[in-house]
Amino acid sequence: MRKLIVLSLVVLLCLPLAVYAASMGGVETQGQGKFAIGMDQEFVFGKDYKDVTLGDASAYDYTSTILIDGVPTDLDIIGGVSAFKEKMEIDNMSRSMIKLSYGVLDHLDIFVRLGEANFKQKIKGEASDSGTFDDPISGNSGTYTGILENTGTFTGKSALAWGLGAKGVYPFENGWFLGIQAQYLTHGNSLKNKMTEKESGTAVVTAGPDTGTTATFESAGEEYQWNAKATVQEWQIAPYVAKKLGNFIPYLGVKYSDQRINYKDEAMKIKIKAADNFGVFLGTDYKIGKNFSLNIEGRFIDETAMSLGATYRF
Known about the structure:
15 strands; 1 helix; about 325 residues; 15-stranded antiparallel β-sheet; Lipocalin
């Protein structure tokens, strides 16, 4: 039972990586044969992932000290636990990236990104548990049903992140234009994971001096710590509409992200996906002179995030 719980915890920590959906980092192209260099600082405040079911039903036979109606009791337990269902979400994530762009055509750029990413994730899961117990001291034996619960945090160390992509725009009259950006991002993070697991439920004495008695029980919380590795790969496409208003260029768009997260530790390998693939984003560029611009952007639905950026064209 304990081994299965630890296994489940391991899986969840992969999730955090998927939250690294990239910002637009500015909506204009710089022109054929020209370069631009920029810096983006991204913050993710929340992102959900699909529930993960870990392992199969597992049988066990062990001795444990639990609280029965508040009294510590040593019991010989034989039972089985269902697979764990885990819920995962990003607690916080930040990523700093430098972006170098080149204008292949007047309205078509290609770019590369390089930087670092780190994060902290929360997870919470549960599994049903049932079996038989025997108390050699009191002579009572019976059946029990319970719920195993685990909560934990997974912290990803800062690691190299890189990506590449392309952006194109189609200008209209009166300062309007349509754009689309496609990009690929990846990074691998070492993970330090911590999780606490406990169980509570009801026991019924079916044989012994107290036959027919029903009691509640609760196990003392156990803490697990282990290291792991997670590799994130994400493909994203994002069409948008924008309009020039003086020095401002506000924009609004939608995006589709396909995130693949590969988690690995000594016990298992697993893949995890984000709960939502579609999201919306809005923001604005602010031009300072001919070559310099600032950017602020918010992203919603598939994640709650924002980014700040600056770009210099030459």
